[in-house]
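Consider the subject:
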Amino acid sequence: MKKFRPAKKRVEVSVGESVHTLRELQEPNQSQRAALTGISQATLSAIKNGRVDLGIERAKVLAKALKCHPAVLVFPGCEVPLESAA
């Protein structure tokens, strides 16, 4: 087993900012994401604004809709070495 190497914090980004940035890059609006994920538009808005925790299960569903790894949403701002990102 390889030695554990902690991720380096590159920038300060909240979960909501991470979700918002990914959405802007991929262009689905909040109602389209709600339809893709089954997560209500109100809940998505609350996540984006930091009023509701994302949680692992929601992160998995949302990451699939945004075509990214759930860790991008759960641990925003962390650097992941390219060789370990799969």
Observations:
- The radius of gyration is 13 Å.
